[in-house]
DNA sequence: CATGCGTCCTGCTTGC
DNA sequence: TGCAAGCAGGACGCAT
């Protein structure tokens, strides 16, 4: 469930405890959490002795930038995808890992980064060159760093449903089901509308609304539906500001009609049949 | 190429 | 009260 605002909150929360530290080792409590790597030992050797230069977000990925080190004489990155239920926090290295902890990164100050993931959808990987990773190279623009008009132009001739395109990480990066539904409501667009049937002005309005909603969600520390927590263990606050997500059957906050629930692009989609159309 | 759909995974919720 | 089916959803593999 962590989408752009949640991963941004996590990156900001982890940075003070990680940046400047040196990585000593890693431990995998679940073998499948490690993606695109021949073995845990290859990963461990690849990170050992490196200093953490930065902790940042790209799309829904948490990216840890690692400096070169003796024996590892090139920059590298650890990329973590939290998917639905992933959580990250820093604790004493000797702390007993709670249930569903899949991975630990041990630091030179006696602490460790813990990665917990109940549903095992999440993963982490060690990447020397991010752009040689096809998924990363194909990511679309960051919505908060782009002109809404330029984003709108990216889907001008597409016939797919607008909801499917918002969720497509190559169209725009970092949007998931929550912020897709919320921005479609704000722009007055049905989730099952075909992109080519939406006027350029309304498509621009959609991305302007997306920017505003993402910024407000980051300011609130993200949205907690069930599993998401900040690195400090706190729930987000933006779930209290939802207009439609998870509110099927309840009155539309704008017109009072009951909100409809459908499946679009295989995802539950909530919208107002009066305001979006 | 573009689009759409089934699959993975596990714990909570719903329904009989 | 108990148990099974349903549901959540990001990315990917495959079908059309």
User: In sequence order, what are the helices and strands, one letter per element?
Assistant: HEHEEEEEEEHHHHHEE
Shape call: elongated
Tell me the β content. Answer: 15-25%
Fraction in helix = 25-40%
- Domain count: the total is 2
**Total number of strands:** 10
Q: Would you tell me the overall average pLDDT? A: 95
CATH architecture of the largest domain: Alpha-Beta Barrel
Q: What order do the strands of the largest sheet run in, or round the barrel if closed?
A: 1-6-7-5
Gyration radius, in Å: 20 Å
What is the CATH superfamily of the largest domain? MutM-like, N-terminal
Question: How many strands, what sense, and barrel or not for the largest sheet?
Answer: 4 strands, antiparallel
Low-confidence stretches: none
Distance between the termini: 27 Å
| Name of the level-1 CATH class of the largest domain | Alpha Beta
Topology:
Elements: H1 4-18, E1 23-28, H2 40-47, E2 52-58, E3 61-66, E4 76-81, E5 86-92, E6 101-107, E7 111-117, E8 123-127, H3 134-138, H4 148-153, H5 162-167, H6 177-187, H7 200-219, E9 260-264, E10 267-271
The structure holds a DNA duplex (16 and 16 nucleotides).
For this entry, give a set of tags:
single chain; 277 residues; alpha+beta; N-terminal domain of MutM-like DNA repair proteins; Helicase, Ruva Protein, domain 3; four-stranded antiparallel beta sheet; 7 helices; 26% helix; DNA-binding
């Amino acid at each position: 469930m962590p989408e752009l605002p949640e991963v941004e909150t996590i990156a900001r929360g982890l940075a003070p405890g990680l940046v400047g530290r040196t990585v000593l080792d890693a431990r995998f409590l679940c073998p499948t959490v490690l993606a695109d790597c021949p073995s845990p030992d290859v990963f461990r050797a690849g990170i050992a002795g490196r200093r953490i230069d930065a902790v940042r977000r790209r799309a829904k990925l948490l990216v840890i930038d690692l400096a070169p080190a003796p024996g590892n004489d090139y920059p590298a990155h650890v990329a973590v995808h939290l998917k639905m239920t992933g959580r990250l926090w820093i604790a004493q290295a000797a702390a007993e890992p709670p249930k569903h902890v899949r991975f630990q990164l041990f630091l030179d100050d006696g602490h460790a980064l813990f990665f917990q993931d109940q549903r095992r959808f999440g993963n982490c990987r060690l990447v020397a060159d991010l752009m040689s990773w096809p998924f990363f190279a194909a990511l679309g623009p960051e919505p908060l760093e782009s002109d809404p008009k330029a984003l709108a132009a990216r889907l001008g001739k597409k016939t797919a449903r607008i909801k499917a395109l918002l969720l497509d990480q190559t169209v725009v990066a970092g949007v998931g089901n929550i912020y897709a539904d919320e921005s479609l409501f704000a722009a007055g667009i049905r989730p099952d509308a075909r992109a080519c049937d939406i006027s350029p002005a309304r498509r621009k309005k959609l991305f302007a609304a997306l920017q505003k909603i993402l910024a407000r969600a980051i300011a609130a520390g993200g949205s907690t539906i069930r599993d998401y927590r900040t690195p400090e263990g706190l729930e987000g606050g933006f779930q209290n500001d939802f207009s439609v997500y998870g509110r099927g059957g309840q009155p539309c906050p704008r017109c009072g009609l009951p909100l409809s629930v459908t499946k679009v692009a295989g995802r539950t989609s909530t919208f107002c049949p009066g305001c979006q159309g």
